[in-house]
């Protein structure tokens, strides 16, 4: 792999509330290579979403720096498009209009109307949502909404695509379909992806590397597992793959250890 | 054994050999279903009849009591039959115009409505803009909140002397009273709507780097639309209250003045007819704004 496109250097994030400081991230350093798919996994409340929000520019760092192509991230921007956990589609716009909003904002100055239309449709096609382009988010299923969310993020042609527990609210079957879609898209457009999840199978299935975070407060990176299974991956084939199972086991073990650590530490 | 199993599973649905038990069951089922459908149809008809009949019945009952009281105490409030007799022209010909203020109720209501249209329209535009501003800028909201909370409780007519003194003419004064009465609920509701925009939408705007103008039109206005229309509905009701009251004092043409004028000439029946007009028009205004709100914010509530 080539040199890192995104690097987090000694990141500390503190939140202050009523004069009390809570330390969320404690000296987190991480780098992602171009075209790499990175999963971040950890127990809920461990600060993994905070980490993603730092990259998105939605949460400022207390100390340290997040660099995208060697330039410091100081705020949100379309080159780090986010697929939010609860899709965050604008309910008063149709599926088409939701994607078009992003397309018009980013390319409106450079391209004419038919080019913008083609670009919008192309991104809806990527997630196979052209058939519902005139529906409003309220009229489509949760899985479809998330597809549109992905199309909107992809339409920004981000340097890094950020997925914040994108399938957390979906049923298992829909979740599986969407995971396949994301894998296929990643193979096709060679996107650099940073995904937050709390699902071990999802993390291993999709990622090149799985970053495991310790429990918060003061979360840090506990370990990193490299998933070397060849792509394209098939979820049924992987069940028989010893390396895949090994990765999976290491992550489960890590999570169980840290689950234990919390229950022991808490009564004290 | 396998032969028997097969026979057992196929026999109830086989068509060549009619099974008397299955046929009986089918008959019973069909009858039960027909009964269910009939019962649901009856319920629907009863529902519809209730929706129309009950209000009619109530109105009839009230009219009868009123009529009875009118007969029992002559010289008091005119009974419905007296109203019908005395105010015949007013009821059946709302469009007559004999010049001056001697016009049908339609023209009076139209004048009042046009005043409400201007005053309320201005209040809607200014109210939404001011509410959006106060909802966005925290220090501005903090600074103006006490003032708004006090001003919004001032009754419409209390503004009239001040506006007359400042504007010196009846027409702009009436408009000002409508404006100042109806703007507060619009400002306050818009402000609440803007302050309650979900963080998700704000984050989307941030990632897209929308400009303040784009944010206002693409996110803020649509997101706050349900709240804005709540404010507009309250506002239009209040402006209708304000116009009738202020026209009574200002004179000229208008439904408020008409009521006052008829009072001065002791034409109670005309006043009763005018009251019904005022009520109906107020009701229609409210429904219109509500319908517009439903149309504009379609899909917004659904998630």
Automatic annotation (TrEMBL), chain A:
Gene3D superfamilies in UniProt: P-loop containing nucleotide triphosphate hydrolases (3.40.50.300)
Membrane topology qualifier: Peripheral membrane protein
CDD domains: ABC_NrtD_SsuB_transporters
Keyword Metal-binding: no
GO function terms (MF aspect): ATP binding
Subcellular location: Cell membrane
Keywords: ATP-binding, Cell membrane, Membrane, Nucleotide-binding, Transport
PROSITE patterns per record: ABC_TRANSPORTER_1, ABC_TRANSPORTER_2
Bilayer-spanning residue ranges: none
ABC transporter domain location: 6-240
Domain of life of the source: Bacteria
Ranges in coiled-coil conformation: none
Entry keyword Transcription regulation: no
Pfam family of the protein (one): ABC_tran
Family stated for the protein in its record: Belongs to the ABC transporter superfamily.
Name the UniProt record assigns to this protein: ABC transporter ATP-binding protein
UniProtKB/TrEMBL annotation, chain B:
Record-stated family: Belongs to the binding-protein-dependent transport system permease family.
Gene this protein is translated from: ntrB
Keywords of this entry: Cell inner membrane, Cell membrane, Ion transport, Membrane, Transmembrane, Transmembrane helix, Transport
Cellular localisation: Cell inner membrane; Cell membrane
Keyword Isomerase assigned: no
Name of the protein described by the UniProt record: Nitrate ABC transporter permease
Organism whose genome encodes this protein: Asticcacaulis aquaticus
Residues annotated as transmembrane: 52-73, 116-137, 173-194, 240-260, 272-296
InterPro entries per the UniProt record, alphabetical: MetI-like (IPR000515), MetI-like_sf (IPR035906), NtrB (IPR005889)
Ranges for domain ABC transmembrane type-1: 109-293
Main subcellular location of this protein, as a coarse class: membrane
PANTHER family documented for this protein: ALKANE SULFONATE ABC TRANSPORTER-RELATED, MEMBRANE SUBUNIT, NITRATE IMPORT PERMEASE PROTEIN NRTB
CDD domains: TM_PBP2
Family annotation (NCBIfam families): ntrB
Membrane topology reported for the UniProt record: Multi-pass membrane protein
